[in-house]
RNA sequence: GGCUCGAUGGCAGAGUGGUGAUGCAGGGGACUGCAAAUCCCCGUACGUCGGUUCAAUUCCGGCUCGAGCCUCCA
């Protein structure tokens, strides 16, 4: 298997440190608001990676954290006049619901920062002990000059960064690039007791501490959105390496490209944020998932209505092939080598999808029952690796477009189809066509197959 | 300003130093009462200017354009 490593800037052969236990850490959400479609991309991409790894390795410990201590959460809680727990639990549940709809499996571990305060404090103490961090005015800061490798991941020169810095440098910092590990809380802010007084952790130390607690000092794969390379992952790397006596923190760094809206970054300031749950009102979760896998994960992906409609039509074709195969009992055939090879080549989902369509065409052409059974099994096994094609074709074609869409009920459709078959039997094609046109106008496409009429929602 | 990554046909999107993936859309045909679905066939592409090479969309360089990071951010 090959994976593109941000640290080296090239594709590398992947070999886990311990083949009996592959470890993977992906930065999860800060739960203070609804998740948008951009947040869904890493969740889906690394879900696919976990599935591919699990096919080859017996145990994959995948950790995706929930950041439930953060100043944005504090702001949201203060605004509503509730405890931060009210906010974080609400949006954690929503996050789970959204990802469930996209077929994203839960990670092995889903740690929360609030459950790891002791670990975070201990890590900060160790960093001070080894001289990589220092306390100043209630804060604890990581000294970037203590780590020679600082800047390697994001390919940045510290001196240039200072020149381009847009923020004012706090006077207690030894170096302008030093970042906060622990900061003091005022009495009205959420805080936890620590050797440096009541306060709360900085953002970067959380992930380092949770990765250490659950996966150990060195992890195989660390993933996240491309925007996290700097400063978040650069800082994590510096902290963890310093705390672990120079041991490698993450062996492979993977970053997914950004999702744009009409070629522009999705952000609240631009006002083009598209929430996962808004999209799910008008489209099935599986189509959203496929749309996210249409491009290679490292490439930017432009989100628009056409991309989603395209994904739905693709699923129509794939599920159509499965439906037309009829009731053949799937054999125990597995996804073909070319499909696996595509996914093991740095998660090349577009190439893998092309293989899937080749299988669908073969299935559409097949007449032999054994051949059909093998192809159905191959398509389903391949689909499972992508997290697709696991429902019955009938369910796919009869489901509504999304949580908010409407249309005639199945009973109404069945009644209309009965009337149409009667008209057809009487060779009253004018009436049969009228019924078909009427249903189409209401969002239901009727097709005549050799097995009789069938329908699907548009 | 610094850094990173891109630029493929009507659209989306892989890939490759020399036979133009895949899906959608389009044209033709088969099938169908007509459609739809399916199958077969077809078309149009590698930003620009140079270089290397027998041969470049594929390697190298300049340019132009685009996305992202340098501040919270997937």
Description:
The chain is α/β, with parallel strands linked by helices and 458 residues long. It has three domains: 2-260, HUPs (Rossmann fold, 3-Layer(aba) Sandwich), CATH 3.40.50.620; 304-398, Anticodon-binding domain of a subclass of class I aminoacyl-tRNA synthetases (Four Helix Bundle (Hemerythrin (Met), subunit A)); 410-457. Helix content is 45%, strand content 15%. It contains 16 helices and 15 strands. The protein has helices spanning 37-56, 71-80, 84-101, 117-129, 158-164, 203-215, 229-243, 276-280, 285-293, 305-324, 337-344, 349-365, 369-386, 393-398, 410-425, 429-441, and strands at 2-5, 10-13, 22-26, 60-64, 133-136, 139-142, 179-184, 199-201, 219-225, 250-256, 259-261, 264-265, 301-303, 444-449, 452-457. It has a four-stranded parallel β-sheet with strand order 4-3-9-10, sandwiched between helices. A four-stranded antiparallel β-sheet has the order 5-6-7-8. The mean pLDDT is 91. The structure holds one RNA strand of 74 nucleotides.
What's the β-strand tally? Answer: 15
From the structure provided, what is the oligomeric state, counting identical versus distinct chains? single chain
CATH superfamily of the largest domain: HUPs
Distance between the termini: 39 Å
Query: If you average the pLDDT, what whole number results?
Result: 91
Tell me the β content.
Answer: 15-25%
Shape, principal axes of CA atoms: elongated
Rg computed from alpha carbons, rounded to a whole number of angstroms: 26 Å
Tell me about the biggest sheet? 4 strands, parallel
């Amino acid at each position: 298997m090959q994976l593109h490593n941000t640290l080296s800037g090239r594709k590398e052969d992947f070999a886990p440190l311990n083949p009996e236990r592959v470890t993977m850490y992906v930065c999860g959400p800060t739960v203070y608001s609804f998740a948008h479609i951009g947040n869904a991309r890493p969740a889906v991409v690394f879900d696919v990676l976990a599935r591919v790894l699990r096919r080859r390795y017996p145990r994959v410990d995948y950790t995706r954290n929930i950041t439930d201590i953060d100043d944005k959460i504090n702001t949201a809680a203060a605004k509503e006049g509730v405890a931060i727990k009210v906010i974080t639990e609400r949006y954690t549940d929503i996050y789970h619901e959204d990802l469930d709809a996209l077929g994203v499996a839960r990670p092995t571990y889903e740690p929360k920062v609030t459950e790891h305060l002791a670990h975070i404090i201990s890590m900060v103490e160790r960093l001070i002990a080894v001289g990589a961090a220092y306390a100043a005015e209630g804060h604890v800061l990581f000294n970037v000059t203590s780590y020679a490798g600082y800047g390697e991941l994001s390919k940045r020169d510290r001196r240039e960064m200072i020149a381009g810095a847009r923020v004012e440098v706090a006077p207690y910092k030894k170096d302008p690039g030093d970042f906060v590990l622990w900061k003091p809380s005022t009495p009205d802010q959420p805080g936890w007791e620590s050797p440096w007084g009541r306060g709360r952790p900085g953002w970067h130390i959380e992930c380092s501490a949770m990765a250490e607690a659950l996966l150990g000092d060195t992890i195989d794969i660390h993933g996240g959105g491309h925007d996290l390379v700097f400063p978040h992952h650069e800082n994590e790397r510096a902290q963890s390496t310093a705390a672990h006596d120079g041991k490698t923190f993450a062996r492979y760094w993977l970053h997914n490209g950004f999702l744009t809206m009409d070629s522009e970054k999705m952000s609240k300031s631009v006002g083009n944020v598209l929430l996962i749950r808004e999209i799910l009102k008008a489209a099935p979760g599986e189509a959203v998932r496929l749309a996210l896998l249409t491009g290679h994960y490292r490439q930017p992906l432009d989100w628009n209505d056409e991309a989603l409609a395209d994904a739905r039509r693709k699923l129509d074709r794939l599920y159509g092939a499965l439906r037309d195969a009829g009731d053949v009992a799937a054999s125990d055939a597995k996804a073909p080598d070319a499909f696996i090879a595509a996914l093991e080549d740095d998660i090349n989902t577009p190439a893998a999808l092309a293989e899937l369509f080749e299988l669908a065409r073969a299935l559409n052409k097949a007449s032999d029952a054994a051949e059909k059974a093998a192809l159905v099994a191959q398509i389903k096994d391949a689909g499972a690796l992508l997290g697709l094609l696991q429902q019955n074709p009938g369910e796919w074609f009869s489901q509504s477009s999304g949580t908010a869409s409407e249309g005639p009920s199945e009973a109404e459709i069945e009644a209309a189809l009965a009337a149409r078959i009667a008209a057809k039997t009487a060779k009253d094609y004018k009436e049969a066509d009228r019924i078909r046109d009427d249903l189409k106008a209401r969002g239901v496409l009727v097709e005549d197959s050799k097995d009789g009429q069938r329908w699907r929602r548009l």
